[in-house]
Design a protein that fits this description.
- The protein is an alpha+beta fold and 507 residues long.
- It has two domains: 2-17 and 211-505, no CATH class; 49-204, 3-Layer(aba) Sandwich (Protein Transport Mog1p, Chain A), CATH 3.40.1000.
- It contains seven helices and 30 strands.
- The chain has a 15-stranded antiparallel beta sheet that branches. Strands 1-4-5-6-12-11-10-9 form an eight-stranded antiparallel beta sheet, sandwiched between helices.
- The longest helix has 19 residues, at 208-226.
- The chain is globular and about 75 Å long.
Length: 507
C-alpha cells in the first residue's frame, strides 16, 4: 500500500491530498525518567482533545478516520491508541432505565464496551469496571487481562465522554503476569499508575471557534455551488494536460490527463448510458517510480454530470515491486442524489385535490457506493450518506480552476479519500495574487492552500491570474507537480506511455 500511496501522490496533490500518518521521534519531557513518566503534550483542536502520552514512546499521528494517535514502545511492548467515536444515537456513560419504558434498561457506553471487549477476547478477566470524574469530564475505566498464545496482556481503557454522541477511547496494552494480583507485580503497578496519570492529564477542548469557522466556510461553499454552472465548468476544461512529478528536485514520475465533455465513463463493449445527461469526464494515466526498481502504473476515469446529481468513477493500477512481484488494485464508485418520498401524516397531501392521496414528505438522499479490490480484500463494499457540500472527484480535480481568484476566500468541502476509505473534510484557502517561486522560476500566481482535515498536510496549488493551472507543492513530502508538455516528458523519460487511459468494462 505504501508503494501505491507514493505512486499516486501526484494525483492526490492535484485533486486534494490527504495527510499521511506522521511518525515522530521518541518524545521525552526533559528531566523525567523516560520509563514510566508522561511525555510531550498532544493537543488537537480539530479532534477536540488534549493530553500527555507516555514518555519514551514513538508517536504516530493519524490523518483522518477515527484513530487520532498511537504511542508505541517496541522494547517494552507497550501500545497506547487514542480514538474518537461519533455515535448516531445518544448514549449515556452508565446503564440506566429507559425513559420511554421504565421497565427496561438502556445500556450505557461503559457496559457496552466491556461486553464488546469480552466478545473480542473470550475468557478475559475483568479487573476493573468503574466510573470516575477528571475535572468536569466523565470517564469510564476498564481493565482486562487476557492470555493469547504464550503472552498475557493487560488492557486498560478509558472512555472519555465529551457528550452523549461523542466519546474518546484511550486503550493502553502492556505485558502482564499470567496469574496473581497486579498489585504484587512491580511492573504492572507502574503501568497502571502511568495510565492513571495519562487519564488525569486529559482535557476536552472547546470547539466552538472551529465550528463557527466551518459554518462560515460552508456558507461560501454553498454560494460557490450556486454559481458553478455548466458554462463555468466547460470553460475550465483544457482537453489535455501533461504533468511532471518531482520529489526533492528529482523527477519520479509523470501523468497524462484527458478532460472532455461526455455522458458517462468510456465503456468497453457498451454504448454507455442511453440518454444520460452531459457532464465532465476526466481520464488520468500515471506512471511513477517510488523507489529504485519499483514502478506503479495507474489509470483513472472520473465522470460527473454538470448538475452534480450523478457521479461514477473507475481506478485501477498495477504495482511492480523491486523483486519483480506484481500486485493489482482497483476501486469503482458512484454517487447519486435522489428524491425519496415517505409517508408522513404531518406533511401536506400528495394531491390536495384528492383526499384519498396519502400525506408524504419529500427528501433528497445523497448516497455514495464504493467497491474496492486489493491484495488483501476483494469486493470490499462501502456505503456512505453524503452531505450537500460533497464535491465529486472530477470537480475536485478541476477545483483550482473553478474557484474565484479575485479575493482571498476560504471554503469547506466533503470528498472521498480512497486511502482512508472515508468521506472527509477538504479545506481550501484562496490567497492573494503574488509573485511566487515554482520549480526555481518566479511567476505571478494565486496560491490555493488545500488540506484534508483541519490539521492535514498542506498542498499549495498555483493558478495564473487568468485561471491556468501551473503546479502544486507539498513541503512536507517534498513533492511538486508541475504543468508540462508532451515534448518535455519525452525528453525526460525513455518511451513514456502518454496514451489515453483504456476504457472501463461495459457493465
Amino acid at each position: 500500500m505504501q508503494l501505491r500511496l507514493a505512486a499516486l501522490i501526484g494525483l492526490l496533490l492535484f485533486s486534494g491530498s490527504a495527510a499521511q500518518p506522521v511518525d515522530s521521534p521518541i518524545a521525552v519531557t526533559p528531566g523525567l525518567d523516560a520509563r514510566y513518566e508522561l511525555g510531550a503534550r498532544f493537543q488537537s483542536e480539530a479532534a477536540g482533545i488534549a493530553f500527555n502520552g507516555p514518555a519514551g514512546c514513538r508517536e504516530i499521528r493519524r490523518a483522518g478516520g477515527d484513530q487520532l494517535v498511537q504511542y508505541v514502545n517496541e522494547e517494552k511492548k507497550w501500545s497506547l491508541s487514542v480514538s474518537r467515536a461519533a455515535l448516531s444515537q445518544p448514549m449515556r456513560m452508565l446503564t440506566e432505565p429507559d425513559p420511554n419504558d421504565r421497565t427496561k434498561m438502556r445500556a450505557g457506553m461503559l457496559d457496552s464496551t466491556v461486553l464488546q471487549m469480552q466478545s473480542d477476547a473470550p475468557g478475559a478477566e475483568v479487573l476493573r469496571q468503574d466510573f470516575i470524574n477528571v475535572g468536569d469530564v466523565e470517564v469510564g475505566m476498564i481493565a482486562m487481562r487476557a492470555t493469547v498464545g504464550l503472552e498475557t496482556r493487560l488492557t486498560q481503557r478509558a472512555l472519555v465522554r465529551a457528550h452523549d454522541r461523542l466519546y474518546y477511547s484511550f486503550t493502553f496494552i502492556t505485558p502482564a503476569p499470567r496469574e496473581g494480583s497486579l498489585e504484587q507485580d512491580p511492573e504492572a503497578r507502574k503501568v497502571v499508575d502511568l495510565f492513571s496519570r495519562v487519564v488525569d492529564s486529559i482535557k476536552v477542548l472547546d470547539q466552538s471557534r472551529l465550528i463557527e469557522e466551518q459554518n462560515q466556510r460552508l456558507f461560501r461553499t454553498r454560494a460557490l455551488f450556486v454559481n458553478l454552472t455548466e458554462e463555468r465548468i466547460r470553460r475550465a476544461i483544457t482537453g489535455e494536460m501533461w504533468l511532471r512529478l518531482i520529489r526533492a528536485g528529482k523527477d519520479v514520475g509523470y501523468t497524462y490527463v484527458v478532460e472532455e465533455v461526455a455522458s458517462d465513463l468510456p465503456r468497453r463493449g457498451d454504448a454507455g448510458r442511453a440518454g444520460g445527461a452531459d457532464g465532465v469526464r476526466v481520464g488520468i494515466r500515471s506512471r511513477t517510480f517510488p523507489e529504485k526498481g519499483a514502478q506503479v502504473d495507474a489509470e483513472t476515469w472520473w465522470f460527473v454530470t454538470f448538475d452534480r446529481r450523478n457521479e461514477v468513477w473507475s481506478s485501477i493500477g498495477i504495482i511492480t515491486a523491486p523483486d519483480g512481484t506484481r500486485e493489482d488494485y482497483g476501486e469503482f464508485g458512484s454517487a447519486d442524489r435522489e428524491i425519496k418520498r415517505t409517508l408522513d401524516p404531518q406533511a401536506d397531501a400528495a394531491d390536495p385535490n384528492d383526499p384519498r392521496q396519502p400525506s408524504v414528505r419529500q427528501s433528497e438522499v445523497y448516497t455514495l457506493h464504493v467497491t474496492r479490490n486489493t491484495r488483501q480484500i476483494r469486493g470490499d463494499q462501502i456505503e456512505r450518506q453524503l452531505p450537500p457540500f460533497y464535491l465529486p472527484q472530477a470537480l475536485g480535480h478541476l477545483l483550482p480552476r473553478l474557484l474565484p481568484l479575485n479575493e482571498p476566500k476560504t471554503y469547506l468541502f466533503a470528498v472521498w479519500v480512497s486511502d482512508s476509505r472515508e468521506v472527509m473534510k477538504r479545506y481550501i484557502d484562496v490567497d492573494s495574487e503574488s509573485t511566487v517561486t515554482l520549480a526555481g522560476q518566479k511567476v505571478r500566481a494565486v496560491p490555493i492552500h488545500d488540506r484534508i482535515g483541519v490539521e492535514g498536510s498542506v498542498t499549495t496549488h498555483y493558478v495564473s491570474p487568468d485561471g491556468k493551472y501551473l503546479g502544486s507543492v507539498n513541503e512536507d513530502s517534498q513533492i511538486t507537480v508541475l504543468a508540462s508538455d508532451k515534448a518535455t516528458l519525452e525528453k525526460i523519460w525513455s518511451n513514456p506511455n502518454l496514451t489515453r487511459p483504456a476504457d472501463v468494462p461495459g457493465k
